[in-house]
Amino acid sequence: MDIQELKERIILDEKIEIILQELKMHSICEHSDYFSCGVPDGNNKKSTVVYKDSLIVEAYTRNIRDEYGVSDIISLVSYINGTYFSQSIKWICDVCGYDYYGSNDNESKLARWVRDMWKTSSELLDEDDQLKPLDHSVLQYFGNYANPLFHKDGISYETQWEFGLGFDLAYHMITIPIYDDLGTLVGVKGRLYKEKVNEDESKYFYIFPCSKSKVLFGLHKTFKYIKEKNEVIVCESEKGVMQLWSKGIKNAVAISGHILSKSHVEKLTRLNVPIVLAYDQGAEIGKDGKVDKNFYPNEYQKFLPNQELYCLYDKFGVLNKKESPMDNLEKWDILYEKRFRIR
Based on the structure, what is the number of domains in the chain? Predict the structure, then answer.
């Protein structure tokens, strides 16, 4: 569910008090414009104020601000429950009786049109469609099979089983289940089972499509390792995450493309760890075949100015054309060791 949409529903449905109750806040008192209360482990009965018209929170005894400097009902839930922001949103939806994967059916077409008018074309593109959960039983059709093609590319059979890879006989494709950061199945991607793909063929194809701009592939598995390592490695492809996992490097995610979406940036920022962009060789190559020096700046400028950010920039000529940094462990070690700090 869209964050702004969720906030609007909380306000219209007057759900603030029930959220505070479920958070075990004490001394909850309603005033004309706000609620006052105390945190579960505090003695101050008025240490926290939640404004009714905006859901902005003033916490006088605790720093609940998120990575964007926002102090609102969602950051309060994240602070009290110790949850990642997607988990906090899901928790609020469950408490309020909302569908996390649904949208506000009561919103008028006019209201939706007005909201979209204020978005740029790139923001609209980044939004794509809402993520929708798939019945997990669809994976029974593909089974759970490891394959020698991916094994040859450095993905161990154990890793293939771990990530639930299967095979689609109809399309003759390796199947890759796509899960969101809550671990819900939202799509299935296929990879044509042949080493050399013709120009008129698509190597990858979504058998069950999903909004890839809203998914960091692998996050449901790698989240705890990201927090342990205090770093997230950002790959282009799902295969890159599995290659690193096979090498024992488990703090990676993939954006399933070449360019970070608004949602990707937000999810990565809210992990609150240093970020390493590890794109394939050639990702920074312009249409004329020359290095596009604006590419990486265009990517890292999407992040907050205080975000600790690195990139694997192959200025040493380590990688072959179109080679991924994850394809070869020795090359990965060289590039990672010499990763460039952007800020």
Answer: 3
